[in-house]
Amino acid sequence: MLTDKFGRHINYLRLAVVDRCNLRCTYCMPENGLAWIKQDDLMTDEEMLSICTVFTDLGVDKIRITGGEPFVRKNCVSLIEKISELKGLTDLSLTTNGLLTEQYIPQLKAFGIKSVNLSLDTLDEDRFFKITRRKSFDKVMKTLDGLLKHHIKVKINTVVMDHQNIEDIIPLVQLTKELPVDVRFIEEMPFNGNNNSDITPKWTYPQIYNHIRDHFPGIKKLEDPKSSTSYNYKIPGFIGNIGIIAAYTRSFCGDCNRIRITPSGILRTCLYEGGGINLKDMIRSGVTDDELKNIIINSIHHKPKDGWEAEQQSLNASSIHQSMATIGG
């Protein structure tokens, strides 16, 4: 099993299959998009499958497919199917914005995907357009309905932004009354693709929690699973649950079990890490699987203690302002 110098066991890989996205969310990228990774610099399906195989050989048993938006990648469904067949993999999940997802839900179910994170920052169609700069609210809601009909667990990810969607917090909490969903409120992070930005969120974990508690004073704390990124709660009598992710204040790093691979094949041991090792280039240079394993083992051994340390160690401070689409959501 992969272990870092702090004794944390690393068993969770987040694989970004593409940087491109069909939304332009204000907290992720500029309105005109990004300078997308050139096709030759993206990993091929075979390279992604090879990297995933190496990681499962090393004890990784959970993989999450992310982007960008995963389904923007050509043949993404075929790639997901191949990854689902890897020996040793016990948990394959997906993060999506829902625009292209509905048509693939039966296949995802057949591949054994039991959980999908669905990005949804508002339940208001007009605010959805202002945040995402696209009129696709109905597609996301159809995906939500389809996932629930196929009994796939849904976690709704909501980035909390001052003056943009605060009025949506309570309606989103209300979703858990009748639906078996987890709604997770996320502190806004500095990954908006603007190097000149200075994101210090006004709505942090305590403020989000207090706002919910003011409306639901009976809210109960749940036990958080090991390595959970969210602090989890339940409103008595409600079917679903609520989570709050302290993504900016980074108070969940202590037992982190995650690593990331960007669409261009860069291994990042922390979301806030500025550099990383390009595994794709190493594969193309002819390194063997055993050599690649040793490189990965050494890199993970030096995984930073937390996001603050990773940011301080970054050789390129502006790199923390990349788009989440570039890093891997």
Automatic annotation (TrEMBL):
Cofactor requirements of the protein: [4Fe-4S] cluster
Enzyme class: lyase
Key words, A-Z: 4Fe-4S, GTP-binding, Iron, Iron-sulfur, Lyase, Metal-binding, Molybdenum cofactor biosynthesis, Nucleotide-binding, S-adenosyl-L-methionine
InterPro entries, A to Z: Aldolase_TIM, Elp3/MiaA/NifB-like_rSAM, MoaA, MoaA-like, MoaA_NifB_PqqE_Fe-S-bd_CS, MoaA_twitch, MoCo_biosynth_MoaA/MoaC, rSAM
Keyword Hydrolase: no
Record-level Gene Ontology MF annotations: 4 iron, 4 sulfur cluster binding; cyclic pyranopterin monophosphate synthase activity; GTP 3',8'-cyclase activity; GTP binding; metal ion binding
EC code: 4.1.99.22
Stretch forming the signal peptide: none
Entries under PROSITE patterns matching the protein: MOAA_NIFB_PQQE, RADICAL_SAM
Gene Ontology biological-process annotations: Mo-molybdopterin cofactor biosynthetic process
Domain Radical SAM core, residue spans: 5-223
Record-linked CDD domains: Radical_SAM, Twitch_MoaA
Catalytic reaction equation(s): GTP + AH2 + S-adenosyl-L-methionine = (8S)-3',8-cyclo-7,8-dihydroguanosine 5'-triphosphate + 5'-deoxyadenosine + L-methionine + A + H(+)
Pfam family, one: Mob_synth_C
SUPFAM superfamilies: Radical SAM enzymes
Spans traversing the lipid bilayer: none
Listed name of the protein: GTP 3',8-cyclase
Species this chain originates from: Chryseobacterium pennae
